[in-house]
Amino acid sequence: MTKPPRKPSQPLLRDADAPLRSQPRRRRDPDQSQLLLDPMPARIDPCLALLKPRPPKGRQWAFEVKWDGYRLAVYIEPKGVRILTRGGHDWTDRFPAIAAQAKRLPLSTAILDGEAVVFDELGRSDFGRLQQSLGGKGGKRTSWESVLMAFDLLYLDGHDLTGTELTARRHLLEGIVPPGGEEAIRLSEEIEADGDTLFRIACEHGLEGIIAKDRNSTYRGGRGGEWQKIKCIQSGGFAIVGYQRSSSAFGNVGALLLAARKEGQLVYVGSVGTGFKANQALELRAAMDKLKVTAPAVKYSGGRKNLIWTRPKLVAEIEYRAWTHDGKLRHPSYKGLRDEQDNAAISRIADGDGG
Question: In 237-248, which positions are buried (b, 16+ CB within 10 angstroms) versus exposed (e)?
């Protein structure tokens, strides 16, 4: 015969009507392990897109528009907001609208990755307008019209997300920056389309190109291939090694003489005489005249007259269609001067570029 259960010596509730009370909190043992939050990193090296001639195939690839602006990382903390350039320089004061919008986001701490842009009348990002809003090369103006097109979330409320796959990071980002907004921080939306189709449409609408991202990839700095860029129009940074003086051109600058790096040396890659407006030409002339030298920094045999040579300290952003057979830029157009604080690198060309 089984025995009945023993009556507990201390009932769970002495008085059924008495309120429940929690156990008194004990002082924490300093040697006891605890769940730690990830510290906010001072800076994360940006993931950079690898240039490819055509979009990749496969369901793992997500596609976005390629924005033409300045790469920024926005660090949000209770003590304030920091906006860092790709090179790690603090430009918080130069983007006040973006900084103000970041403070209003529904979170405590975060790191947003994105591109600061200024749009033209057709809604396309325009690098020249962005530079003008900032006061040009070395300018100190603040750009109230700049918009951050946010495309990644690297840190959120005490958690480092760089080891998380892109799909999860994007899901969290969309909860913070919803699509369709008109604020100073907007979502760079993924576009549900075949890569080839999207690339064709982007080029037809005069966009710079598209970006392809591996949905399953984690976030790591550098050009590892997880992100790829496919450009309708090629562009790059080229050193200004001189200019052709012209009495009939804005600022008396008829054309800029350009150079790129090849096998560790600067080589002449042609000239550009279109794309800059009157005020840009005047600023260029003033900057170049401070860098005059008597001998060119490159081998030159172009036969142009009235040439003024300069030290290769200024880096111009140039759009171009292709390379000629003799290694010159085809149909180049001036877009603006790259700022040293934005990691103004001179393009490197391989043996296959222009022969």
Answer: bbbbbbbbbeee
pLDDT over threshold 80, residue 171: yes
User: Which positions are annotated as active-site residues?
Assistant: 66
Of the candidates 233, 260, 288, 264, the one whose C-alpha atom is nearest the C-alpha of residue 346 is: 260
Q: Where are the domains of the chain?
A: 50-231, 234-342
pTM beyond 0.85: the answer is no
State the virtual CA torsion across 205, 208, 212, 217 in degrees, nearest 10: -140
What are the tens digits of pLDDT across the range 58-87?
A: 999 999 999 999 999 999 999 999 999 998
Dist CA 309 CA 315 (whole Å):
15
Report CA Rg, the chain: 27
Query: Pick the residue with more confidence: 251 or 317?
Result: 317
Q: How far is CA 164 from CA 71, 173, 181, 215, 337, in A?
A: 21, 13, 26, 10, 36
CA–CA distance, 264 with 281 (Å, rounded to integer): 30
Question: Residue 303 and residue 294: Cα distance in Å, rounded?
Answer: 17
Tokens of residue 193, six digits: 């389309």
Q: Supply the DSSP string of 202-257, one letter for each residue.
A: HHHTT--EEEEEETT----SB--SSEEEEESSEEEEEEEEEEEE-TTSGGGEEEEE
CATH of domain 50-231: 3.30.470.30
CB 188 within 8 A of CB 115: yes
Distance (Å, whole) CA 36 – CA 53? 44
> Which structure tokens are listed for 86?
């790709």
As its CATH architecture, domain 234-342 has Beta Barrel (2.40)
pLDDT of res. 16: 47
Question: Which pair of structure tokens corresponds to residue 264?
Answer: 């560790």
Whether 55 has a pLDDT exceeding 50, the answer reads yes
